Amino acid sequence: xxxxxxxxxxxxxxxxxxxxxxxxxxxxxxxxxxxxxxxxxxxxxxxxxxxxxxxxxxxxxxxxxxxxxxxxxxxxxxxxxxxxxxxxxxxxxxxxxxxxxxxxxxxxxxxxxxxxxxx
Length: 119
Prior knowledge:
Strand content: over 45%
CATH topology: Cathepsin D, subunit A, domain 1
Order of helices and strands: EEEHEEEEHEE
Helix content: 10-25%
CATH superfamily: Acid Proteases
Largest sheet: 7 strands, mixed
CATH class: Mainly Beta
Number of strands: 9
Shape: globular
Distance between the termini: 30 Å
């Protein structure tokens, strides 16, 4: 399994993606994690909390909110977890699917999903 980072832009609306971050791509994480200090600076407010089990097995609860994430020419609003202040941004599966992006682990890049199946 490979790990790599991609540049993302985040903001309060699709036309205000002002903050640029390097985010680890992690398809094992359902939601994206953004440092809480970044979200608070943008004025993003939590709309609730959700329980999580960390890779270490530790169980925690964290606030969640919504933010716009942009990658290259695509942007979408998505659910994010308020991560530790000063921590690393993580791009999770929910945001990737919303942006119709898939992971190419061999070349360590994101690629368009192509045709999306609807059954």
